Amino acid sequence: MQHAGNNKTPFGALRIGVAALAVFCLMTAQAKAQQAASAPATVAQGRVAMPPAPPLPHGASAPHAASAPARALPAMPVPIPPQAAPAAPAASAASAASVSEAASAASAAEAASAASAASEAAASEAAAPEVPLPPEAPEPNAAQRSGLAPKGAYAMRQTFAQEVDRRLTVPAADQQAYGRALQHALDENGHGDLANEFVALVDRAENVQALFVYFRAKPGDAWSMIGASPVSTGRPGSYDHFLTPLGVFQHVPANMDFRAEGTLNEFKIRGYGARDMRIYDFGWAEGERGWGKGGVSPMRFQMHATDPEKLEPVLGMRHSKGCVRIPSTLNAFFDHHGILDAQYEARAAEGQSMWVLKPNRQTTSWAGHYLIVIDTARKTRPAWSPGPGKAARQQVPAAANNVD
Fold this sequence. Notes:
Blueprint lengths: L10 H28 L21 E2 L29 H4 L6 H26 L15 H5 L4 H4 L1 H8 L8 H17 L10 E5 L6 E6 L8 E7 L11 E2 L3 E4 L7 E3 L17 E12 L6 E9 L19 E2 L2 H10 L4 H8 L20 E5 L15 H5 L10
Parallel strand pairs: 2-11, 9-10
Antiparallel strand pairs: 1-7, 2-3, 3-4, 5-8, 6-11, 7-8, 8-9
Helix pairs in contact: 1-3
């Protein structure tokens, strides 16, 4: 019986309480470790884990009020960030070390092993690259909605000749041959009935390196060429250089375009061209690696201008890291007339903010949706598509091989 005013606990009772608490902590730690070891690693279902995209490349910009998404560098494999391992649930076991050091160490080891296995499974799942966006249902352009006569579309030939300074004079026989190749590519990709809109066709063949703008009024008609210009596509042989991917690529706002700042990069080159040039973004594509043992990797596929003084003079030969480089005046022609902007204009008409579209643009009623890349593998250089001269090639800076 305790005396009044004496509320101290006897020493023996205190020792018993401490021992009981230690045993309880040890049992709790072991139960948690066993539960972690038996639980399967959690894997997100239904969607490949997406790594965060790096910021806009150096030399590119978007207005501060725009909602342009951050994007990875063009022609670069998708970055896979390392996954941090979750902490091992061994803290409770440490609290029981004074009672049973050996048992506590064993329980901590079990918990750490379970955490390691879980982290490896999570890292394996995250290693899958970003997948391309699914195709969108193409929105009809103004001519397709109204049945407008195609006279204005064919008149774009004169506009092309007036506004684009780097042009190729393609013989009629080759115009027809490329029209048939265009139709074949569309047939293979389920767009064989495409008509009443402009399309852009690129031949990535080393001996051609050209872009063509085509149009036809109705399915079944032959494709008619509007104009052609020299380009540069992917040059294999160096690290991070891809062959430009083949296929039919839809131009959609989900892969939002952006504009060049026109600043010099670390190699003193304007990789995206002069200020305000538009970068046409076609999203992720499977690109054939031009280095090492080959194979394919995801790359960001774009079409854009290039340095007007240092690199535009060598258009007509393979020189990019996988993108399609085009003349600055062709870039302005595509941009001002909305040659591939059917989907952008449809979203703007719905009230969405298409910040990349200029307010003074004059979008054609026959705006298109697609860029098509083929490879004719021509063995000899046609006279109508000459490569850059020796003087132009000698002016290319050595570091230009590191530019997109």
